[in-house]
Amino acid sequence: MRRVVRGFWGPRPESAEALADRWQRTLDGLAELVPQAADAWSQVHGNGPATAFTPEGKALLDALRAAQSAADWSDLTGTGLRLVGTGTPGWEAEVSGLAGGAPEFLLQSLAIVLHAPDAAVVPEEDVLALLARVWEPDFGDVSDDDVLDALEDEAGYAVGDPVVGRTGYLSPARAALVPDGLEAVRQELPGGGELLSIAAPGDSAAVVRAYERLREAGALAPLLRPMDRPVL
Predict the structure, then answer these.
(1) Long-range CB contacts (< 8 A, 24+ apart) of 15-22?
(2) pTM for this structure?
């Protein structure tokens, strides 16, 4: 089964050193939570084949500096990095990010895609909590193809809109707008944001209901464009 764990935020200029620290904490945390997913890593490049990659500080810093130097506009759009990990048969992790820039219209993001056997237990909520702690996003979600299709078809969700999936994360200002009676388990995280446990795998209808209620309450209002802040 393919699971997607994502976080999004607005402009937040950061140095390569700061980004390397966030990446390191992400990969270290992922190795603790899902050790079977990534015994070996490779870096995916825009041109040419993927190359073997050792996820440690200097390699991460070098990769981010190389990405910055390859794109004169990285200070505006953000610095991109994409890593793929392979592990136990049937398991794979992909981590991709675009961060550190000050775009006015393009959200910054970090996405973790986990492939696992259908019957495997995957701590997807813990992975989203890790992403929230490390990257301090504005909103985030745990989704799969069925959830995203249901949100698009039944609730009018479009790519780039704030969203929650089976599990959602909302930054403090968004969490303050969560309506009473929402069918979700709420867990406050360090920093004041909230993790919302909304539905089990396969229950896309519950996700659609929660998404519509949160959107009506303003908790999923988009950042104003042009953007001038990382979170609502």
Answers:
(1) 15/100, 16/61, 16/64, 16/65, 16/68, 16/79, 16/100, 17/61, 18/100, 19/64, 19/79, 19/99, 19/100, 20/57, 20/60, 20/61, 20/64, 22/99, 22/134, 22/135
(2) 0.94
